[in-house]
From TrEMBL:
UniProt cross-references to InterPro entries, sorted A to Z: ArsR-like_HTH, HTH_ArsR_DNA-bd_dom, Methyltransf_11, Methyltransf_Superfamily, SAM-dependent_MTases_sf, WH-like_DNA-bd_sf, WH_DNA-bd_sf
GO molecular function: DNA-binding transcription factor activity; S-adenosylmethionine-dependent methyltransferase activity
PANTHER family: METHYLTRANSFERASE (PTHR42912), N6-ADENOSINE-METHYLTRANSFERASE TMT1A (PTHR42912:SF93)
NCBIfam families from the UniProt entry: HTH_metalloreg (NF033788)
SUPFAM superfamilies reported for this sequence: S-adenosyl-L-methionine-dependent methyltransferases, Winged helix' DNA-binding domain
Residues covered by the HTH arsR-type domain: 3-97
Name by which UniProt lists this protein: ArsR family transcriptional regulator
Organism annotation: Phyllobacterium phragmitis
Length: 336
């Protein structure tokens, strides 16, 4: 079970770290999404060294997390149980009508608007090629409906979306999980994902840069891991599945979405598809090798017949017994 208390000295240190107005303002801002030092500098109207000093104290107190993305560092509220709960409890009791906090939130809205503009520009530059591929398979809404059916409606603690792209799966399943993480190697796509999460008002998910073959997450830390339309871009899909399985808690589930075998060579030549779909036999073999059991499969055929793409869903589970935290019966049980 999770430890839900702090020793006296640690509690005092934690409270000391937040006993300053700028640091409380930073916590309030980070409760609304991931931000960089540059973001916080422009919002708070303070120098970079001063903001960095505040962040260092909050980080050392365990109240915020820091992760690197290329040359940039992002910060967000801590995922750690007790300190994260303390931070959220303090934020919940702040008066948002305070003039200083109102100004911070207005500037935060400007930062998020600028993110959205960058995301829109990236989409505009790539939309034509993506639209051509979408026409070859069933609609995104049909795929998402199938995903929701196969995952079910029971809430769970944590979700990892590998190759998150636009962050759409984090958005789709946000009502079910307490903590969501999306990983992508492409910084342009991370810009898109952050903008989409901001627009949807989702604050229980974050995205970060990482290698699909060496995910920047702890082992056995997620209840659901998803890999949506990613494997066909990889030269070693089996290694990616093995790494995703490493992140699963006992009893956790891995959901893979990709294409069934096809013969559309232009996808290899023009869109960097290294694999022209996957068979059930191939996928089951990889899942078994990773220590998982394939529970369910589902097929969504294209209306285009032989000229189209069939979307395939594979749901596998980690067969080990759950010996720790049970699946939450409601999201309200968790606040960190």
């Amino acid at each position: 079970m999770r430890d839900t208390s702090l020793h006296l000295d640690l509690m005092v240190d934690t409270l000391k770290a937040v006993a300053e107005s700028s640091r409380l303002r930073i916590l309030a801002l980070l409760s609304r999404g991931d931000l960089t030092v540059s973001d916080l500098t422009s919002i708070l109207g303070q120098s970079q060294p001063r903001v960095s000093r505040h962040l260092k104290l909050l980080y050392e107190a365990g109240l915020i997390n820091r992760y690197q993305e290329g040359a940039w560092a992002y910060f967000r509220l801590s995922d750690e149980a007790v300190r994260g709960e303390i931070a959220r409890a303090l934020i919940a009791r702040l008066d948002c009508a305070d003039p200083l906090l109102e100004r911070d939130l207005e500037r935060l809205a400007t930062v998020k608007s600028q993110r959205q503009e960058k995301a829109t520009a990236y989409f505009s530059a790539n939309a034509r090629s993506w639209d051509r591929i979408r026409l070859l398979h069933v609609s995104d809404s049909a795929v998402e409906a199938a995903l929701k059916r196969i995952v079910g409606k029971t809430p769970f603690q944590s979700m990892l979306d590998v190759g998150t792209g636009t962050g759409r799966l984090l958005e789709l399943f946000s009502p079910l999980y307490v903590r969501g993480v999306g990983i992508d190697i492409n910084r342009d796509m991370l810009t898109v994902a952050r903008a989409n999460l901001d627009r949807a008002g989702i604050t229980n998910a974050q995205v970060r840069q990482g290698d699909i073959y060496a995910l920047p997450v702890e082992r056995e830390s997620f209840d659901l891991v998803t890999i949506h339309q990613v494997l066909h871009f990889l030269d070693d899909p089996q290694a990616a599945i093995r790494e995703a399985a490493r992140a699963l808690r006992p009893g956790g589930r891995l959901l893979i979405v990709d294409f069934a075998p096809h013969t559309l060579e232009f996808l290899r030549e023009e869109h960097a598809h290294l694999r022209l779909g996957f068979s059930d036999e191939q996928m089951r073999g990889w899942l078994t090798e990773a220590g998982l059991a394939c529970d369910k499969t589902h097929e969504l055929e294209s209306k285009g017949g032989d000229a189209g793409l069939t979307v395939k869903l594979w749901l596998a589970c980690d067969p080990r017994l759950i010996l720790a935290d049970p699946v939450p019966s409601s999201l309200e049980q968790f606040v960190s």
